[in-house]
Design a protein that fits this description.
The complex is a heterodimer of chains A (319) and B (507). Chain A is of the alpha/beta class. Chain A is 33% helix and 28% strand. Chain A is built from 11 helices and 14 strands. In chain A, the strands form 3 sheets. Chain A has a 6-stranded mixed β-sheet, sandwiched between helices. In chain A, strands 2-1-4-5 form a 4-stranded antiparallel β-sheet, with helices on one face. Chain B has helices at residues 4-17, 20-46, 53-75, 82-87, 90-95, 100-120, 123-132, 137-164, 168-188, 190-195, 197-204, 216-243, 271-280, 283-307, 313-338, 341-345, 349-353, 359-371, 375-387, 389-393, 402-428, 433-466, 470-505. Chain B is mainly α. The chains are: A alpha/beta (319), B mainly alpha (507). Chains A and B meet through helix 2, helix 3 and helix 5 of A and helix 13 and helix 17 of B.
Chain lengths: 319, 507
C-alpha cells in the first residue's frame, strides 16, 4: 500500500538496454508538495528513471511505478494527465510564436478556447513572458525558451513536474530565475522532481534528495539527513568575529565537551568541534559574549552536498 | 608537406567513403549490373530477336546510373553543409580560416568524387557492351560525359539547398521537389525535355551517333552548375549566420512575429492536425503554391497539345490525370518519409508522446494534417476523370472491363505497402529511406509474387477439371492471394512502425 503522502512510488526498478543494465533495484518515494532532487553522475540512470516515470519507457520485469496511485504501465493516459515532463534537450516547435506553442499543447490536452486563454495568460505571467507572447520561439534566448518550456509543462495544470536538467545551458541569471519560479510552484502546491548536476542550487532548493550511481540508489531521504549523516557525535561550528580576540581561543578550548578549536589564518574565524552528547553547545556563545567579542557569523557546519555526493558515488570513468 | 586547405577535403572524402549508404548503393549497383549482364549475355547467345545486346545492356546501366545519381542528389549531396550545421561544427570550420570557396569546394567535391568513382567503377562493364555489339566507344564516352555532368549539376543544386536550409531533410526535400518538378515539366515542355539527361542519353544511344561528345546541353548544365556554386558561395555567409546559431538571432526584428502571408488560426480541436498542416507542411501558402504549380504544368500541357491541332477531351483528361496522379504519388511518398522525421530531427517526439493521446491518434492526426496537401492533385484527378467519362462509358461491362479495376486495386494496395516501407525506413535511416524502401519493395514483390502464383496455379486445377476457364480462375485466385499477402505485409509493417516509434520515444 502506498504511503498516503507519497505521490510517486518506485519499487524495484530494473531496466536494461540489451546487455547494459541501466537501473538495478531502484526504490524510492517522492512526497507530496516537495521539491525532490535527483542527483547522479553521467550514466547513473537518471534520465532512464525519468523516462520510465513519464511513460516514455515501459517498465521491465517486476519494476513497479505508481504516480498518484496510477500504474505507469497500465494507466499511462491518466499518468500523463497528472505529470508534466520537461526533457533534458531543448525540443520546441521553433517556427511557432509563444502563444501558438502554448495554445497547441493546451488544445492537445483538451482545454476549451476560453480555458486556454485564461491558462496561457496566467502561465505567461508566471514565467514573466506575457509581454512577448507574439514572439517566435526561435528568436528567444535559451533562458527564455526554457521558461516557455516550463509554461508548456504547466499548461494542463499537472500536480507533479518532472524536470530533467532544467538549468543546463542557462546563464546564472536565468538559473536563479528558474529556481525562483520552481519555489513559487512548490508554494502553489506542485510537487517537483528535478534532476540536476548543479548541486549547490539543489542543496538550497530541495527538501528531499535521491542519489543514484551506476543504476543503484545510494541515498534517498531528506536533504538535511544527507548533509548530517555520518557526522557521528562530534559537531563542528563556525564562528567568525569582527575583530581578532587574543583570549577567546584558550577560553573556548577550556569549555567542557569541546574537542578541538582551530583558528583561521586571519585570526577572526574559529572552527570549534564539540561533542554533541555533552549538551554544552550554548556555552560557546555564552563565552563569546563574556569576552565582549563582536560576532559576524555563527553556524553549525554541515557537510556540503558536493561532499556528500562525492562520498556516495564512485570516481572514474563509467562504462 | 602540410596543405591546410586540403585537410577538410581529405577528411570529408574519408568520412563519405565509409558511409553505410554508399556501401549499400555499391552492392545494389553491382548486383543489378551483374544480373542484367548475365541476362543480356544469354539473350545474345540464345535469342534471334536481340540484334544489339550491347546497346540494350548499356542503355540499361545508363538509365540505372541516371536514377542512381538523382537519388544521390537527395540523399548524399543534400547533406553537404547541413550535416555540419546540425552538429554545430560549421562555425568551428569557419574559425580555422578556411575561405567559403575552399569550404564549399572541399565538402561538395568529396561527395561528388564518391559518386563519380561509383560510376567510373562500371567502366569495364560499359566497355563490355562494345564487345556485345550495338554501341561504339564514342557513344560510351559521350554518355559518361553526360553522367559526370549530371553528377556535377545535381551536386551543385543540392549544395545550394544545403547552404540555404538548416536541416538536411529540408535540403533533401527541396532538392527532390526541384528535380521532380524538372522531370514533370520535361514531360510537357519540349525545351525542358531537350536538356533532360535522360533524353540526351537517348539521343546519344541512337545507332550511328556521330554528334559531339560535349553537346550544347552539357555546356548549359555546366553553366547552371557553376551558377549554383557561385550563388551558394555568395549567399553562404548570410544563411550560415542564421542557421548555425542555435540561440536567438541577434537581429532586433527577427524575434518578432513572422509576417505570414496567410494568418494561422487558433489551434483546432485536433491540435496535431493543425500543427502538421500549418507548421510542418506549409499551410494555406503551401496549398496555394501547389495549386499554382499544378495549374501551370497542366495549362502548359494543354497549350502544347493545342499546337498539334485542337485537343480531344480525352487528351485534356489524360493531362489532368497523369499530372494529378504523379503529384499525388510524390506527395504521399514525401508525407510518408517525413511524417515522424521532423519530430525526430527537432527532438520533439518525446514531448508529443507525453500527451494523453495514443500513438495511433497521433499518427492519424499527422496524416490528416499532411494529406490536406493532396487536395489540389485529387481535384486534378477528378477533373481528369470527368473529361474521360464518355470514354469510360464506352467500355462494355464484361469480365474484361474488370481488368483495369483489378489493376488499379492491386496498384493501390502495392503503393500503400510501399508507403508503409518508406515510413518504416525513414525511422531507421536519416536520409534515403524511400530509396531503401523501393529496393525492399522490389524484392518483396518478387517474394510475394512467386508463392501466390504457385498457390493460384494449384488452386485453379480443380476448376479446370470441372470445366471452368482455367486462365480466369487462376488469375482471380492468384490476385486474391497476392492482395492477401500484401494486406498481411501492411499489417506487419504497421506493427513494426508502432514498435519502432515507441522505442524512439524512449531514446
Amino acid at each position: 500500500m502506498a504511503d498516503s503522502n507519497s505521490i510517486l512510488d518506485l519499487r524495484h526498478l530494473y531496466h536494461s538496454f540489451k546487455k547494459h543494465v541501466a537501473l538495478h533495484d531502484v526504490t524510492f518515494k517522492v512526497e507530496r508538495n516537495s521539491i525532490h532532487g535527483f542527483v547522479g553522475p553521467n550514466g547513473a540512470g537518471k534520465t532512464t528513471t525519468l523516462k520510465l516515470i513519464s511513460t516514455l519507457l515501459k517498465p521491465q520485469g517486476i519494476s513497479k511505478i505508481s504516480v498518484f496511485g496510477f500504474d505507469v504501465a497500465k494507466e499511462y493516459k491518466d499518468v500523463r494527465r497528472k505529470i508534466g515532463f520537461m526533457p533534458d534537450h531543448f525540443s520546441m516547435y521553433k517556427q511557432m510564436t509563444i502563444y501558438e506553442y502554448l495554445d497547441f499543447f493546451a488544445a492537445a490536452y483538451g482545454l476549451s478556447i476560453k480555458q486556454r486563454d485564461t491558462v496561457i495568460g496566467d502561465l505567461l505571467a508566471l514565467v514573466d513572458m506575457d509581454g512577448r507572447k507574439d514572439d517566435l520561439i526561435k528568436g528567444l534566448s535559451r533562458g527564455m525558451q526554457q521558461r516557455v518550456n516550463l509554461a508548456r509543462v504547466l499548461v494542463h495544470d499537472p500536480d507533479l513536474l518532472l524536470l530533467d536538467e532544467p538549468a543546463s545551458g542557462l546563464d546564472p541569471r536565468a538559473r536563479i530565475e528558474l529556481m525562483d519560479i520552481l519555489r513559487e510552484l512548490r508554494n502553489m502546491g506542485k510537487t517537483i522532481f528535478i534532476s540536476s548536476h548543479i548541486l549547490s542550487e539543489l542543496a538550497d532548493l530541495c527538501d528531499c534528495v535521491t542519489i543514484l550511481d551506476v543504476g543503484r540508489v545510494k541515498f534517498t531521504g531528506k536533504m538535511q539527513d544527507l548533509l548530517t549523516q555520518d557526522r557521528g557525535a562530534v559537531v563542528s561550528y563556525k564562528l567568525v568575529l569582527r575583530q581578532p580576540h587574543a583570549e577567546l581561543e584558550e577560553k573556548l578550548k577550556a569549555l567542557p565537551g569541546v574537542e578541538d578549536v582551530k583558528l583561521d589564518n586571519d585570526s577572526r574565524g574559529f572552527t570549534i568541534k564539540i561533542n554533541e552528547k555533552s549538551g554544552k553547545q550554548h556555552d560557546i556563545m555564552s563565552t563569546v559574549i563574556e569576552c565582549n567579542a563582536e560576532v559576524v557569523e555563527f553556524r553549525e557546519e554541515t557537510k556540503h552536498l558536493n561532499q556528500a555526493f562525492m562520498d556516495l558515488t564512485k570516481a572514474g570513468v563509467r562504462s | 608537406m602540410n596543405f591546410p586547405n586540403t585537410a577538410l577535403f581529405m577528411h570529408s572524402l574519408t568520412v563519405d567513403n565509409k558511409r553505410l549508404l554508399n556501401y549499400l548503393l555499391r552492392w545494389i549497383m553491382l548486383i543489378l549490373i551483374g544480373l542484367s549482364l548475365v541476362q543480356y549475355l544469354f539473350s545474345s547467345l540464345f535469342s534471334a530477336q536481340v540484334t544489339a545486346p550491347g546497346l540494350d545492356f548499356f542503355q540499361y546501366i545508363t538509365t540505372l546510373n541516371l536514377i542512381f545519381i538523382t537519388v544521390l542528389g537527395v540523399t548524399l549531396f543534400a547533406s553537404v553543409i547541413t550535416e555540419e550545421k546540425e552538429v554545430g561544427s560549421l562555425n568551428l570550420l569557419l574559425m580555422t580560416g578556411l575561405t567559403t570557396f575552399t569550404l564549399l569546394l572541399s565538402k561538395s567535391t568529396s561527395k561528388m568524387i564518391v559518386g563519380m568513382l561509383l560510376i567510373l567503377a562500371q567502366l569495364p562493364f560499359s566497355i563490355m557492351a562494345v564487345t556485345l555489339g550495338g554501341v561504339s566507344m564514342r557513344q560510351i564516352i559521350a554518355v559518361y560525359m553526360v553522367l559526370f555532368t549530371y553528377i556535377f549539376f545535381i551536386s551543385n543544386l543540392a549544395l545550394f539547398f544545403s547552404v540555404i536550409t538548416s536541416k538536411t531533410y529540408r535540403a533533401a526535400s527541396w532538392t527532390f521537389v526541384v528535380i521532380a518538378a524538372f522531370y514533370i515539366l520535361s514531360l510537357i515542355f519540349p525545351l525542358v525535355a531537350w536538356i533532360s539527361p535522360f533524353s540526351l542519353v537517348f539521343t546519344i544511344l541512337i545507332t550511328g551517333f556521330k554528334g559531339n561528345v560535349v553537346s550544347l546541353q552539357i555546356v548549359i548544365m555546366w553553366a547552371c552548375s557553376l551558377s549554383f556554386f557561385a550563388i551558394s558561395m555568395y549567399i553562404f555567409n548570410y544563411f550560415t549566420r542564421i542557421s548555425t546559431n542555435n540561440g536567438p538571432l541577434r537581429v532586433p526584428l527577427s524575434s518578432k512575429k513572422k509576417l505570414r502571408l496567410f494568418p494561422v488560426p487558433r489551434t483546432w480541436k485536433n491540435a496535431i492536425a493543425w500543427k502538421e498542416y500549418f507548421f510542418t507542411s506549409g499551410g494555406t501558402f503551401g496549398i496555394v503554391v501547389i495549386s499554382c504549380l499544378l495549374a501551370l504544368v497542366i495549362g502548359g500541357g494543354i497549350y502544347f497539345s493545342t499546337l498539334n491541332g485542337s485537343p480531344k477531351f480525352e487528351d485534356i483528361g489524360g493531362i489532368f490525370l497523369v499530372t494529378g496522379g504523379i503529384v499525388f504519388g510524390l506527395q504521399c511518398v514525401y508525407l510518408s518519409s517525413t511524417i515522424f522525421n521532423h519530430e525526430l530531427e527537432e527532438k520533439t517526439f518525446s514531448t508529443l508522446m507525453m500527451m494523453p493521446i495514443s500513438l495511433k491518434e497521433i499518427a492519424y492526426s499527422k496524416i490528416l494534417g499532411g494529406i490536406v496537401f493532396a487536395i489540389p492533385p485529387i481535384v486534378a484527378i477528378l477533373i481528369g476523370l470527368f473529361f474521360i467519362t464518355d470514354s469510360l462509358r464506352s467500355i462494355p461491362v464484361s469480365m474484361q472491363s474488370l481488368g483495369p479495376l483489378t489493376l488499379i486495386l492491386s496498384g493501390g494496395i502495392q503503393f500503400l505497402f510501399y508507403l508503409y516501407l518508406v515510413t518504416f525506413f525513414s525511422l531507421k535511416i536519416r536520409y534515403g529511406g524511400f530509396v531503401l524502401a523501393a529496393i525492399v519493395f522490389f524484392i518483396v514483390q518478387i517474394g510475394l509474387g512467386i508463392p501466390s502464383m504457385m498457390i493460384g496455379m494449384i488452386s485453379a486445377i480443380p476448376f479446370g477439371i470441372i470445366g471452368a476457364s482455367y486462365g480466369d480462375i487462376f488469375a482471380i485466385i492468384a490476385s486474391i492471394m497476392t492482395w492477401g499477402l500484401y494486406i498481411f505485409s501492411i499489417m506487419f509493417m504497421h506493427r513494426l512502425i508502432a514498435k519502432r516509434l515507441k522505442s524512439l520515444a524512449g531514446e
